[in-house]
Specification:
- There is one protein chain.
- The protein is α+β, with helices and mostly antiparallel strands.
- The protein has one domain: Alpha-Beta Plaits, CATH 3.30.70.20.
- The protein is built from 2 helices and 4 strands.
- The strands form 2 sheets. Strands 1-4 form a two-stranded antiparallel ribbon. It has a two-stranded antiparallel sheet with strand order 2-3.
- It is globular.
- The model has no long low-confidence stretch (mean pLDDT 97).
C-alpha cells in the first residue's frame, strides 16, 4: 500500500497525524507530509486507510 498527500488540498487539520503518526507527519507550516517514500508498512495499513477516510479535505490518496 502507498499513500500520498495532495499538498494543494491539505489545510492542516492534522487528523492523519493523530490517527497514524507512523505514516504521517507535519511540515514546518503544519501541513501533512508522508514519512518516508509513501510505502506503508503492513502493520500500519489499517490506520493509514482510516486516516485517508477521515481526512476532512480528502487530501490523502491511497493505492494498493
Amino acid at each position: 500500500m502507498r499513500v500520498e498527500v495532495d499538498r494543494t488540498a491539505c489545510v492542516g487539520h492534522a487528523q492523519c497525524l493523530a490517527i497514524c503518526p507512523a505514516v504521517f507527519a507535519s511540515d514546518e507550516l503544519g501541513y501533512a507530509v508522508v514519512v518516508g517514500d509513501g510505502t506503508v508498512p503492513p502493520e500500519h495499513e489499517d490506520d493509514a486507510q482510516e486516516a485517508a477516510d477521515f481526512c476532512p479535505e480528502q487530501a490523502i490518496g491511497v493505492s494498493r
